[in-house]
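Collaboration report, partner site 2.

Our partner group contributed sequences for two proteins of shared interest, and the home lab folded both. The records are reproduced in the order in which they were received, starting with the first partner submission.
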Amino acid sequence: MACAEPVAVVHRGSAPLPATAVDQNAAPFNVTGLSGITHLGGNHFAAVVDNSNKLVHLEVQFAADGSLAGATPVGGTTLSQSRDYEAIAYTNARLKTVWLADEGGPRLDEFDLKTGELLRTVAAPSPFGQRRNGFGWESLVRRAGGGELWTANEEALTVDGGVSSPTSGTTVRLLRYAAGDESYVAAEQYAYPVEPWHVGDSSLTSAERSGLVELVALPDGKLLALERSLAFSGLISPSFENRLYEVDLAGATNVAGMASLAGATYTPVGKRLLWSGAAAGAVGMNMEGLTVGPRLASGNLTLVGIVDDGGASDPLSANALVAFEVTSAVADPSLVGDANLDGRVDAADVAVLASTYGTSSGAQWEDADFDGDGQVTLDDLAALARALPVAANASGRTTVAANQTDQHAATPEPSAVALIAAAVAMLLAARWFIRRQKLPRSLG
């Protein structure tokens, strides 16, 4: 079996963002303190404004190499609660919700993306309550399929060790939430070593630091971590530096049962540097958020970062997006038709397609958008039909779907396509009926 290609990332520049947007009630608001960003599908993104109840909806255009050709606010959402939300993760076109990480709780909140209604809250496990002020949950990512959420504290909890310095890093905890019956349940925790400041201490400010500010999940399951360092040393630049790593969980100790990491014996996660430098501007800017974006015509993935302008406290940063191109091959889930990512193509995937059929934008793989165009159309229906088990052949043996063994090994009979079309019609009717019932919310 061939080894997976190592992740490779190229910085593609930045673009400024306007300072105002309009929410779902046609009320304008100031855009400042953008701390997290998530991909809504196609060219659409949503960003969260920290210490507020605001989300900004963005339309982003890309050049062929992944650089930014334009970025425009196209709306916003005023949430029913105002907290220090620092990170954001979109669910899918079926749920149309976002999860937000509250640094001050810490806790995770799910909101309706259109109305801003709070739908549910997930509490933090021990010992995340022992956070340092301003160094709590800064990151959040939802892995494809909705089976898990990941978050982490920015710098060490008070029980786990010291904060970063010019000569030493800080140890934080990666936290995985697993999907339960009706909500997410705290699962494993892993120690992650953050690097020291990128330059020495100039004693110009007490704000110098180095911490983990974002997590990113690639479609093939790889986890990336974004670090951010602020430090001054005479005229050395940049003052802000970001570092992007690929995370390796293999062999790492699950430290969920450890009340303290200070002096404890454990194996931290591994990490491999993919890129480091100034995200934007001559001396760098405060890039705090990062998300996977759409694929380019070349098939390469984009990554989109967002800069927190920091208000009056940060004269170096301004509202901006930052672009990266993933130049290595990153596969989508390999089993075409497997919308729910359970490793097989069956009636459950038909049900997913039935619930999303006709979606014109914002669809993802888990919405049954198998060709990556942001829509769920007849093309996706045909792809699912080709992947369904084929009827028994003349010898009485049953052959399986084409892409479950060989992409070109078999093609379902016309009756299979007719069957799925009939199933979709019935499920569309069922969807209308189900939506009229008061049922528990899904995580997927």
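Second partner submission, folded after the first:
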Amino acid sequence: MPLFNKGHLHGPKGRLALLGKDLRDRSVLLALNFVITVDGPESKSTRRQPGHRAFTGAHESNQVEINICCVHLALTGNGVGRRLPNTKTPWPRASFYAPWVMPDIIQDFTFASDNTAGMAPEALAALTTANAGHAPSYGKDEWTRRALELVTGLFETDCEVFFIFNGTAANAVALSALCQSYHRIFCHEYSHVDVDECGAPELFTGGAKIIPLAAPDCKLTPTLVERAVLKRTDVHHPKAGALSLTQSTEWGTVYSPAEIRALCATAKQHGLTVQMDGARFANAVAATGVPPADLTWRAGVDVLCLGGTKNGMNTTEAVVFFNRELARDFAYRVKQSGQLASKQRFASAQWVGMLESGAWLRHAAHANAMARRLAAALRPLPGVKFIAEPAANGVFVELPAATVEVLWAQGWHFHRFIGNHGYRLMCSWATPADTVDRFVAALRAALPQS
């Protein structure tokens, strides 16, 4: 496919000359500079402009990364830039007209995050329906009443439910109801509570100390938690206050009901409350096949931050208190933290659409299935090493650095997540099977040839 679209430069007509290695070079990445030359009067001046990385592009089987180090605008009579300033080497390799350097390449964010997908049709349809007419504000509407009823029914118990805009606020404000400023909050070292909330739990608790713990497969154990709790118990050290678990975990693994029961028993033995970050809780339910109650209150969880956004909804999470005493005055915390929506029905309607139709669990199961499909295709490939066995909708693998650079240059977006070579590949409710297959094919082609 062509590397650039033809056209004309803005302003005076000019010519863009690629400088660097010849495009026939088969190296994985070609670092190129360029000059812009324009027709005009003779001039001895050359204006330098600050350079920056502009884009990545692909040309047939060559992966080409253009690093714009410096733009040289030379006004010359013949309009040809023969060499870089202060060099004697002739550089021109190709020339063309273009409005700007635009690669003919499609950017694909499918595996970058489960946040990159759009809204699920069930959530969007319900939101559109809720948009008709007028309704009471601040959660006094029928949509919110029904949403609260459905969430309570999902967990088969009386519970207090509050809707929040995003996961960071859900975790932080929930923990503020569990802990004082002098408490410790124990979590895994890769948990969002510690590494992805910009200190929000510490802020909303007034200074509670986050204690990150290292454990295999991103899953805490009772022995590890107990050792951390008992490390210091004197008044000179923050008091043990809460245990935060993530389900499913940040590495795509899942706690079983038995594992949660054991962790909650240890926590309660030492006076800790238990909060669960359930941004991908639906994926955990789909993976285990057990009722949501068995993964939460029946196992000893006090409060769940139930994710909606990563499962096809927009700007809505739910904080679910199974220990209702802990929810005392929580409505005031929601308001004070800027999380009380005036037009709450638009968030609530999405929960109604997803839960009444069964899409909440069905979409999570699809995301998990796509992750299994991806993992199965990657497993036999040389150079691909699994960091953890995938159980939910994420695949975490080590990949060769050169392979990753090729995939990024082709427009595939995914993130380095663990160490120097550990990458996260997320699937969502909307991940197509053929996109999984195309990505695997691209990765296979980009692997070093033995």
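Feedback sent to the partner group on the second submission included the following. The domain at 121-359 is CATH 3.40.640.10 (Aspartate Aminotransferase; domain 2). The two ends are 27 Å apart (CA to CA).
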